[in-house]
C-alpha cells in the first residue's frame, strides 16, 4: 500500500502534522511520499492508495495561496479507488474560520470519486500527545478503508 501526503505549512505545525501521519503510516507498513502542496499534482494522486492533505487556513478562512492550483485541479481529477483523508492545524481563536481549509479540502476531495477513509482531524496549533492519538486513529481508519476496498 502507498500513500501520498500533501501539506501546506506557514508556522511548521502542519508540516509536523504531516510528518506524524507519515511516521504512523510507515510504522504500519505503508510506503509514503511527502510533498509540499505547491509541488503537488492533483492528477498524480490517482496512482496512490491513500491521499492525505494537510492544509493550513489563512486569514479569514482562506485556503493556502500556494495550494489554490492544486485545489482547483481536484475539480477535474478522477480519484476513483483512492482513499482520502484531511487533517490540519489551526487556531481555535478564529472560531467559525477554525481549520476551514481542512473542511474545504475534504469536500473538494469528496467530489473526485475518491472514498473518504476518515473524518477530518482539526488540531489546535501545535500537535500534542492527544493529537497524535487522534491522528493514529485517523491513519488506522484510512488503512482499514483501503484494505476493505481491495477485497
TrEMBL record:
<dbReference type="InterPro" id="IPR008254">
    <property type="entry name" value="Flavodoxin/NO_synth"/>
</dbReference>
<comment type="similarity">
    <text>Belongs to the flavodoxin family.</text>
</comment>
<dbReference type="InterPro" id="IPR029039">
    <property type="entry name" value="Flavoprotein-like_sf"/>
</dbReference>
<protein>
    <submittedName>
        <fullName>Flavodoxin</fullName>
    </submittedName>
</protein>
<keyword id="KW-0813">Transport</keyword>
<dbReference type="GO" id="GO:0010181">
    <property type="term" value="F:FMN binding"/>
</dbReference>
<comment type="function">
    <text>Low-potential electron donor to a number of redox enzymes.</text>
</comment>
<dbReference type="Pfam" id="PF00258">
    <property type="entry name" value="Flavodoxin_1"/>
</dbReference>
<keyword id="KW-0285">Flavoprotein</keyword>
<feature type="domain" description="Flavodoxin-like">
    <location>
        <begin position="3"/>
        <end position="143"/>
    </location>
</feature>
<dbReference type="InterPro" id="IPR001094">
    <property type="entry name" value="Flavdoxin-like"/>
</dbReference>
<dbReference type="GO" id="GO:0016651">
    <property type="term" value="F:oxidoreductase activity, acting on NAD(P)H"/>
</dbReference>
<keyword id="KW-0249">Electron transport</keyword>
<keyword id="KW-0288">FMN</keyword>
<dbReference type="InterPro" id="IPR050619">
    <property type="entry name" value="Flavodoxin"/>
</dbReference>
Amino acid at each position: 500500500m502507498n500513500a501520498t501526503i500533501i501539506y501546506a505549512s506557514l508556522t511548521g505545525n502542519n508540516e509536523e502534522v504531516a510528518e506524524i501521519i507519515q511516521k504512523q503510516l510507515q510504522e504500519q507498513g505503508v510506503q509514503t511520499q511527502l510533498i509540499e502542496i505547491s509541488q503537488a499534482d492533483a492528477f498524480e494522486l490517482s496512482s496512490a492508495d491513500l491521499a492525505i492533505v494537510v492544509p493550513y487556513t489563512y486569514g479569514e478562512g482562506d485556503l493556502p495561496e500556494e495550494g489554490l492550483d492544486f485545489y482547483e485541479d481536484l475539480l477535474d481529477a478522477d480519484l476513483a479507488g483512492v482513499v482520502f483523508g484531511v487533517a490540519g492545524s489551526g487556531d481555535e481563536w478564529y472560531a467559525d474560520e477554525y481549520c476551514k481549509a481542512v473542511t474545504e479540502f475534504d469536500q473538494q476531495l469528496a467530489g473526485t470519486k475518491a472514498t473518504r477513509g476518515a473524518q477530518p482531524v482539526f488540531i489546535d496549533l501545535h500537535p500534542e500527545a492527544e493529537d497524535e492519538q487522534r491522528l493514529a486513529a485517523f491513519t488506522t481508519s484510512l488503512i482499514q478503508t483501503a484494505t476493505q476496498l481491495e477485497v
